[in-house]
Specification:
By secondary structure, this protein is an alpha+beta fold. It contains 4 helices and 7 strands, in the order H-E-E-E-E-H-E-H-E-H-E. Strands 5-6-4-3-2-1-7 form a 7-stranded antiparallel sheet.
Length: 127
């Protein structure tokens, strides 16, 4: 897999949009990030998971998944080694991150999307 595959799969989920945060490509649902390509130069895609989900992915496929360094990683941010991931594994991991974000958005009862503009600042709708 590569960054193009990551992008294609991430944008295939309902409501997914591509945006940018601090110069890095990100993927959002309801205006909130569920995955990024912030570490693509190192060969990684990044997923926003819970620590429990992260532990399950890393435990099952340590050659594919590893925690992001520091506090982000302790909170569940997880690298995916794109070259090592199969399409099925990447799709499943991205779906997990997307589902988590959808659940959090629903629980919060709000979206950070401008009704006047129809999307969050710096976010492009799915093509």
């Amino acid at each position: 897999m590569n960054a193009r595959d990551f992008r294609r799969i991430a944008l295939n989920f309902a409501g997914a949009e591509e945006g940018s945060h601090m110069g890095a490509v990100d993927f959002r649902v309801g205006g909130r990030i569920f995955a990024t390509l912030a570490s693509v130069k190192q060969g990684y895609g990044n997923l926003m998971l819970t620590p429990k989900q992260q532990a399950a992915f890393v435990g099952e496929l340590p050659d594919v998944f590893l925690p992001v360094d520091g506090g982000w990683g302790r909170n569940g941010a997880t690298h995916v080694r794109l070259a090592e991931a199969s399409e099925d594994v990447l799709e499943g991991a991205l779906r997990t991150a997307w589902n988590l974000r959808v659940q959090k958005n629903t629980k919060a009862g709000k979206q950070r999307v401008s009704r006047a503009r129809g999307m969050a600042k710096g976010v492009r709708k799915k093509r």
